[in-house]
Amino acid sequence: MQRRDFLRYGSIFGTGALCTPTLLLGDDARSFSDFKAIVTVGMRGGNDALNTFIPAGSDSKAGYDNYKKVRSAIAAIPSNDSMDKLKKLVDTSGALAIGNASDNPYYDNNKNIAASYKKGFYLHDDSRFKGKIATNIMMPEVAYWLDRGRGAVVQNMGNISAPYTKSELKADPGKLPPFVFAHDQQSRLAHLGTADSISRPNGWLGLIADQWGSVNPETIYKMNVNLSPYGTDRALFGALTVPMNFSQNGPVDMQKFIDKEFETWANNRTYSDMFENFYTKLRKSSFLEMRQTLEDWNNILTDGNPFQGLTDAYGNAIYDGAGRDPEVTLEQLGLASGGNTNFVESFKTAARLIAIAKNKGLHRIAISITLGGFDQHTSLPTYHASRLRGVSLGIDAFMRAMEKLGILDKVALVSLSEFSRSTANNGSGSDHAWGGAQFVLGAVNAGNYGTFPDLTPGSDQDLTNKGRLIPTTSYSQYYATILKWFGATESEIDHALPELKNFSIRDLGFMKKG
User: Quick one: how far is CA 196 from the chain centroid?
Assistant: First the structure.
């Protein structure tokens, strides 16, 4: 239902006063003339940020030597820069064109993904990153986009409601986020954009949608869209906002409802009770929207396909509908079985939905992707390598699609995770921790942001003396920077992110202006 219809029906049935908080009604006149999209990428389980973007600088506390010492040979990535090899794979058009998987710097003749993971990294030593970080070798596609100036990395970020020191947190544990190292609670906080209450019902994107009202023209598409297989992302819910929900493969599962001739059923049912009639009309309306959504999904690739001829770094057509050759996917590209190909499909689905939104004349869309399997207490070189390959391939497909549409400066691809991992290894893996690096791709001012942390166990930034870093940048600041670019006013941002007032820096500066 459109928001105004909900309010109108609510008043008819005498529920308007109960369902409509007056302070959250927003302004139906809020409008934009341009198009922008946010895609959040939640890495469920606690991504090992230290081994995603390796500290590569010379600083004695935050640099590579201390990283290698703390992580030990079991989990540390060797200092073997493969950026020159990667750059040789960029073709004359400026695009990454690997061709054969064996050309990849990480390739292992024995197809041993753990051995590939330990071959090195891609050092970003240009003027933007200044040699302080390197991208994991399993992510050549991500390294390529960062090298092109399309990525920003935000250091030591996490769920924190205010800037606290170790001594303050030790003196008053009540300042800590609830259940600080627990997956479910920290994931909820990271998605909500708050660090002090897991009972908060509304998330940062939902609260913005509340205030913006009918920001998009009259359409069946809502501003917020959920692609998570783990339930609906709480970031997308507001007091008046409920997101659309699709599978990782788009709205294709809706076909089964259409095949059951739901429309005929709805048309042939009448009731004397007005509530039953109202419910039937709503169900019929939902069916019609499902059918329209499925038609749009299919038509976008047939009626003037905007992705015609688009290929990935290996020459595979991204939107041919045929999928990847299993031999290439599972072995040459280093993808272990068990869901990682779904990573790629999630990114492709997000890109396709953005193409539909832009084609339909929408002005703002926010899409949530959630990827699982990042809780690696053991066998980090095997399992983390597999996940990072899926993320990197998915990101590359998405970024190429956005470039094909000509809207790279209109899109923000935003990573998050409930927490990072401990600086010290936990056997052959890493343990639950707190602060860690996140990345944004698309319309960014490329470079490093935030504060590089002291990696020494027991330092003033280590909460428990086990390598659990106290964040120095909050998700509130991170999201506020993105929302400002998205078009939100300062007051709208404050409403969506109530803890932002506790930080002196509201805009971290990694998003482009306008």
Answer: 22
